[in-house]
Amino acid sequence: MTTEKTKPVKVTVVGIGNSGVKVINRLAALKESVWLNLIAIDTDAEAIEKCIIHNKIVADMQWRNGIGCGGDVIKGQRSLGRERPRINEMLEDTTLLIVTGGLGGGTATGGAPIFASVAKSRKIPTIFIMTTPFTLEGHSKRRTAEDGVRELLPAVDVLLCLPNDLLFSSLPADFPVGDAFEKADIEVARSILGVSEIMRCKNLLAADLSDFIAIMNKRKSVCSIGVGTAASSDGLNRCHLALERMLESPLLGGTAQMKEADALFLVMTGGPDLNIGETKMAFEIAAKFIGEDSKVIVGTNTDPAYADFVQITAITVKFDKKESKDDLRRINEFGDQRSSPVRTTVNTIESTQVFEQGELPLQNISKGIFLNTTPVNHNGEDLDVPTYQRRMIKIDKGE
Ligand SMILES: Nc1nc2c(ncn2[C@@H]2O[C@H](COP(=O)(O)OP(=O)(O)OP(=O)(O)O)[C@@H](O)[C@H]2O)c(=O)[nH]1
Ligand SMILES: [Mg+2]
User: How far is CA 171 from CA 179, 284, 313, 384, in A?
Assistant: First the structure.
């Protein structure tokens, strides 16, 4: 597959920090991810030691001794900043960079903007798929994550925030904690795989990476991702089953999200055994959940790694209808994550922000900080009073 005439697609997925590295491990364990270039980076040497992939970096080993950043964003920023040359090298020939990690962590929150910056200097399009902290982690983590979002927004092409609360929302209360984290990490890994698949869809009816970025970048939007998979061994109607699982996906937020979407990407990936009949049937059923006014981009793709297996990914995009200044100010507030779908914030803030020039109170006669000091007199004039006031110069306020 090629993006431009000569350039083969190389999608690099980077996991930053403990959470990001765990997702990379999950991704590496999926045989369908074989075409992705995976990289793991962490300040925590133990996490990197356990990581099952080859391309991995213990960031800033010389200074931090592999002990992690303990939630300190500045340490994360410095540590990954020191790895710029290695990061630059690792992104060689990359045509799309996907970065994942847990916003709120020192390494991920501080390090993610370093990747955004290196990618920008190499003109590589970027999609950041970051989790946001659980409500139970408290305000401080949440603020750290919000600051992280604010810093990333102007620096990336697409930022998808996956609320951790949502990842756990569909699990029963008695679900074992360890299994819940594993399930959440797999869900994030699947979402990354689903987004990546859009980029290499050979049989898309209308879309490629630039379309995807153009739609996601159009305005501030809220987005949701649903991924469903099924194997041939799951039953006769694997596509139907994959579709059902996609619709139940915790990050999709229910079929209402599809109905109300302004834009919807629907991509089916299967092995060479995927046939036109089952593709048609799945898309026809999916169409029942799609709103009349949605811009729909449907595609299919086959890959031998998906033999006897299908994956259906839906990404819904809902543009914010009222982009007032107040809304822009609120853009990074995560709101009630349990009920809202994936928060997607796109980098249109900069271009739509309106700045107003304030007015300096130049006519107030005051000696300011010189008020309580011994006056400096020269030829009968108090030099601590501003010149324009001593000389009665009228300020032109442009009225
Ligand atoms: N989904 C998921 N989220 C996680 C997991 N572990 C941590 N998180 C989230 O990710 C955030 C960051 O945690 P870490 O990944 O441990 O932090 P880090 O980036 O390694 O940063 P430092 O440890 O401070 O160096 C946390 O606040 C959690 O919200 C996990 O296993 N799964
Ligand atoms: Mg860590």
Answer: 10, 30, 21, 70
Task: Give nearest CA residue, ligand 1 atom 17.
Answer: 105
Pocket test for ligand 1, best of 41, 46, 131 (most atoms within 8 A of CB): 131
Instruction: Quote the pTM value.
Output: 0.79
Residue at token pair 């694997």? 238
Distance from Cα 11 to the centre of ligand 1, integer Å: 24
Sequence-separated (6 or more) residues with CB below 8 Å from residue 269: 32, 197, 300, 301, 302, 303, 306, 310, 311, 313
Q: Which domains does the chain have, with CATH numbers?
A: 11-222+318-352 (3.40.50.1440), 358-399 (no CATH)
Pocket test for ligand 1, best of 14, 16, 18 (most atoms within 8 A of CB): 18
Ligand 1 midpoint to CA 179 (Å): 16
pLDDT digit string (tens) for the chain, length 399 residues? 444 445 678 999 999 999 999 999 999 999 999 999 999 999 999 999 999 999 999 999 888 889 999 999 999 999 999 999 999 999 999 999 999 999 999 999 999 999 999 999 999 989 999 999 999 899 999 999 999 999 998 899 888 888 898 888 878 888 898 898 998 999 999 999 988 887 777 655 555 666 677 777 666 677 888 999 999 898 778 999 999 999 988 888 888 888 888 888 888 999 999 988 888 888 888 888 888 888 888 888 888 999 999 999 998 888 876 554 334 333 333 333 333 445 444 432 222 233 334 444 444 455 555 666 677 777 777 777 777 677 766 666 555
Taking CB atoms and a 6 Å cutoff, what residues make up the pocket around ligand 1?
17-19, 22, 42-44, 68-71, 76, 101-102, 104-108, 131, 133-134, 137, 141, 164, 167, 181, 184-185, 188
Per the DSSP assignment, residues forming a β-bridge with 226 are 314
In single-letter form, the type of residue at position 367 comes to K
